[in-house]
Amino acid sequence: MIYVALLRGINVGGKNKINMKTLKRTFENAGMTDVVTYINSGNIVFTSEETSKDRISGTLETAIYQDFDLHIKVLVVGKEAFDDIIRALPDTWKNDREMRSDVMFLWDEIDEGSVLEKLKINPEIDTVKYVPGAILWSVDKKNMSRSGLSKLVGTKVYKMMTVRNVNTVRRIHALMEETELK
């Protein structure tokens, strides 16, 4: 099966530094195949015969700890679930000078529609959607200071997700598609 591992909190602000080439070897040594990393923020597309995302996450978290001496949360998303998230993502959403659009991938503990009730959403300027596995959030950059998105960091919910901008999410999906064609 094709998966992406989304690592939370690596190479941010000089903390939890992990070299992507070394991380690729860590994944391969842990039994993952067709391993491809994308940018320095911990996005790794791979294949595995294992079908339990929890077992894969546990294996990878252990391997990362052994190789880097870091406790890093690893969220594993299968290709079918990622496809569903991509289908729900509006084509008009982008991450550029005018618009900020993010996908917040959720840990199982908070992966339900009621998670939106725990967020400070400004309905006048924020567009927010829940889809299984993720929250999709978009706001015009001119409104960022009034957006609930700016109030998310540090909350309990924030600690149970890992965030990628839509450009990164679309590129990860393209890498998963390329892996499928191999």
Automatic annotation (TrEMBL):
Q: Report the domain of life of the source organism.
A: Bacteria
Q: Give the protein name, as stated in the record.
A: DUF1697 domain-containing protein
Species annotation:
Salinicoccus bachuensis
